[in-house]
């Protein structure tokens, strides 16, 4: 009998899937049969470099979070992706010296913003165990959520401040302003984590999250360049686009001798010895929710439980091109926006509700005519449904309210083109990145990463082991939500198979 080569099918051509494919192919070449099936019509997944108004922009992953020790920084350097002739998003790094403006057009001085910014930073540093001594903190947190801990910290601070002289600014009392500046920082934190509400973010997990040290940078030649580099090692035909998997049947006996069969949306099938599933946590949640049967037989309850407990949120980016007739002092500023809360009677009805939990709007680099804002949670989803005109109108009215007219010429339509991402409603992503939700823990990420069956040993015999392996950012318990987390998870599962075949 001629022995067949093991067939490995990787579901998803994002960072995790292509890293796994690259590792497997470069390690053993054609001694494994390797296929990457991708449901979309492009590779990269949540990495998607595009062009807007002549500038290179990122619709998904944007930053290399810390360059020291980052494998992606190394790839970008080795492949000349750290230089470019074309302007690119955040090529000056993070813009400095924001203009912080409160609703009604009140320019806030550093003396009213900085103490709250420091308070917020100290509270986050405490949660993330970055402070040297716990005494430096106002309150201690045990089994709290991040949101409730932050709110306790703010309440304690306001209590201490209440005896001090209070000066109001326009319709703002000092206290309401302090609360709103704090809320602006909460909104920024929501974007880092993708959680709609920080009260759904687990307190204890924060200290385990790891970022590489060193600068945070964007990729001059485009993040997709790293993806293209990983894919370039694979022979033609390995990556199959527009192959959406609907169902994964496993633990089979008989079918060509291979224990897994994939069913595609075009009703074709493919058998495999090993399948590496790299779809997002959002796709896994949808595929394992009641009434869905992405896995047949269904996943064991411990894994299904981990999938349902872990958090996965929506973050979207909005790029706006400034109207050629718009002129401002030194271009458009790095604008930090401070709004009255949604239930306040003082809020201006011209500012749309969906903007109120967004914290900044800034040029993508100094003097660029393209400005960018990030949206998170419910508002990010709402944004996906708006028309371009509604977005342009909403931002234009907000800028008219916020920016004192001495900073720019007053034209009603400040933008003439918009590009917004739609990660939440895209069926291949159903959101942006994962977080450890209150009620889950990083152990759930380990559970999610466990292969099925792990061993072909006594209990599970005669099932062949490692039929379904799991990679993707949500399976990495210290680097989840990032591109390098996805990269490490792809390597981990490729190495697992390489070790299995010795
Ligand atoms: C707006 C935004 C900003 C971000 N910013 C950063 C950042 O600054 N820095 C950072 O490190 N990370 C950032 N991230 C996160 C980062 O992009 C992801 O963590 C990483 O790219 C995930 O890679 P992955 O391989 O795990 O998943 P994915 O990229 O989602 O890859 C999975 C692939 O599976 C495919 N797929 C899904 N379902 C099926 C199916 N049924 N059949 C076949 N194929 C399927 C998808 O099309 C996709 O290509 C950001 C993400 C977003 C959305």
TrEMBL record:
GO molecular function: spermine oxidase activity
Record localization: Cytoplasm
InterPro entries tied to this protein: Amino_oxidase (IPR002937), FAD/NAD-bd_sf (IPR036188), Flavin_monoamine_oxidase (IPR050281)
The EC number(s) this enzyme carries: 1.5.3.16
Keywords: Cytoplasm, FAD, Flavoprotein, Oxidoreductase
Gene3D superfamilies, A to Z: 3.90.660.10, FAD/NAD(P)-binding domain
PANTHER family: FLAVIN MONOAMINE OXIDASE, PEROXISOMAL N(1)-ACETYL-SPERMINE_SPERMIDINE OXIDASE
Protein name per UniProt: Spermine oxidase
Organism of derivation: Salvia divinorum (Maria pastora)
């Amino acid at each position: 009998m001629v022995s067949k080569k093991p067939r490995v099918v990787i579901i998803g051509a994002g960072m995790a899937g292509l890293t796994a494919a690259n590792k497997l192919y470069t390690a053993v070449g054609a001694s494994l049969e390797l296929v990457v099936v991708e449901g979309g019509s492009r590779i990269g997944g949540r990495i998607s470099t595009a062009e807007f108004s002549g500038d290179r922009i990122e619709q998904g992953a944007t930053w290399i979070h810390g360059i020291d020790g980052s494998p992606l920084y190394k790839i970008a350097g080795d492949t000349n992706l750290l230089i470019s002739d074309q302007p690119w998003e955040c090529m000056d790094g993070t813009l400095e010296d924001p203009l912080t403006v409160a609703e009604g057009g009140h320019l806030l001085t550093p003396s009213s913003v900085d103490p709250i910014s420091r308070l917020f930073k100290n509270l986050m540093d405490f949660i993330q165990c970055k402070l040297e001594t716990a005494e430096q903190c106002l309150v201690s947190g045990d089994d709290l959520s991040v949101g409730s801990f932050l709110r306790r910290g703010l309440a304690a601070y306001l209590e201490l401040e209440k005896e001090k002289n209070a000066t109001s600014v326009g319709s703002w009392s000092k206290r309401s302003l302090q609360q709103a500046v704090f809320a602006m920082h909460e909104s920024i934190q929501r974007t880092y984590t993708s959680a709609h509400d920080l009260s759904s973010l687990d307190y204890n997990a924060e200290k385990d999250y790891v970022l590489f040290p060193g600068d945070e940078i964007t990729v001059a030649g485009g993040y997709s360049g790293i993806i293209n580099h990983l894919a370039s090692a694979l022979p033609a035909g390995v990556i199959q686009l527009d192959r959406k998997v609907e169902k994964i049947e496993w633990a089979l006996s008989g079918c060509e001798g291979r224990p897994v069969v994939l069913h595609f949306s075009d009703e074709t099938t493919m058998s495999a010895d090993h399948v590496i599933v790299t779809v997002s946590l959002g796709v896994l949640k949808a595929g394992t929710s009641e009434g869905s049967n992405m896995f047949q037989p269904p996943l064991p309850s411990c894994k299904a439980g981990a999938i349902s407990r872990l958090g996965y949120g929506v973050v979207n980016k909005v790029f706006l091109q400034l109207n050629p007739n718009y002129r401002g002092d030194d271009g458009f500023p790095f604008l930090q926006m401070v709004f009255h809360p949604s239930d306040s009677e003082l809020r201006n009805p011209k500012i749309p509700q969906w903007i109120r939990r967004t914290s900044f709007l800034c040029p993508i680099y100094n003097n660029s005519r393209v400005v960018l804002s990030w949206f998170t949670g419910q508002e990010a989803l709402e944004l996906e449904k708006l028309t371009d005109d509604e977005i342009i109108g909403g931002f234009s009215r907000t800028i008219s309210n916020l920016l004192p007219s001495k900073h720019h010429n007053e034209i009603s339509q400040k933008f003439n083109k918009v590009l917004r991402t739609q990660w939440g409603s895209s069926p291949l992503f159903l959101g942006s990145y994962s977080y450890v939700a209150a009620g889950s823990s990083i152990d759930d990420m380990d559970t999610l990463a466990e292969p099925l069956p792990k061993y072909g040993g006594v209990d599970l015999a005669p099932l062949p082991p490692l039929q379904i392996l799991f990679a993707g950012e949500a399976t990495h318990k210290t680097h989840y939500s990032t591109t390098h987390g996805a990269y490490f998870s792809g390597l981990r599962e490729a190495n697992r198979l390489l070790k299995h075949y010795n």
